[in-house]
Amino acid sequence: MERTYIMVKPDGVRRGLTGEIINRIERKGFKIVAMKKMVIPRETAETHYGEHRGKPFFEGLVNFITSGPVVAMVVEGPGVIAEMRRLMGATRPWEAAPGTIRADFATTVDENVIHGSDSPESAQREIGIFFKPEEIIG
Ligand code: DGI
Predict the structure, then answer these.
(1) Which among 1, 68, 74, 101 is least surrounded, fewest beta carbons within 10 Å?
(2) What pLDDT, in 10s, does the model give residues 69-83?
(3) Structural domains of the chain, count
(4) What angle do CA 85, 14, 74 make, to 5 degrees?
(5) Mutate which of 8, 47, 57 to test ligand 1's pocket (most atoms within 8 Å of Cβ)?
(6) Was 85 annotated as part of a binding site?
(7) What CATH number has the domain bearing residue 64?
(8) What is the rounded average pLDDT of the residues 8-17?
(9) Whole-complex ipTM
């Protein structure tokens, strides 16, 4: 069964949106097979966002993602990687389709509430960064 890495970002946790996001994931019919609240160590954040290293927004992105607790999850279901991207909406919330999480709850690209892996390769890599195999309970 396909799995993806989902994370309620610090702005989402601060604003009390964790329950709303979990609700949308579960209502859809996906299964949360691992979950934890954590403050991401700086080095882990830099690894997670490694593809953006060197870009002008990299420093701000790492500062933001380490600025408070996140809620990290592994979510399982048919086609879950692409489908979660669809439920999240576009990276830039003003481009996100109405009814998506980012359209409904975010206004800026630097604080866009949720992360979700964008391919099977990223899903595998990101799940491995944040979870040990024994923390995933199917
Ligand atoms: O997978 P996504 O989060 O939808 O998007 P991504 O992997 O391209 O970028 C990761 C995060 O980096 C994104 O959620 C917000 C931030 N980001 C991406 N592009 C920009 C950006 N932040 C700023 N300030 N400006 C950008 O152009």
Answers:
(1) 1
(2) 999 999 999 999 999
(3) 1
(4) 40
(5) 57
(6) yes
(7) 3.30.70.141
(8) 98
(9) 0.96
pLDDT at 138 (0 to 100) = 86
Dihedral sign, Cα of residue 119, residue 14, residue 97, residue 23 = positive
- List ligand 1's pocket residues with C-beta within 6 A: 52, 57, 61, 91, 109-110, 112, 115, 118
Structure tokens, 39: 């403050």
Q: How many Cα neighbours within 13 Å face the side chain of 45?
A: 20
DSSP character at residue 53: T
DSSP tally for the chain: helices H, then strands E: 7, 4
Domain span at 106 = 3-135
Select from 85, 87, 109, 113 the residue to mutate for testing ligand 1; criterion: most ligand atoms less than 8 Å from CB.
109
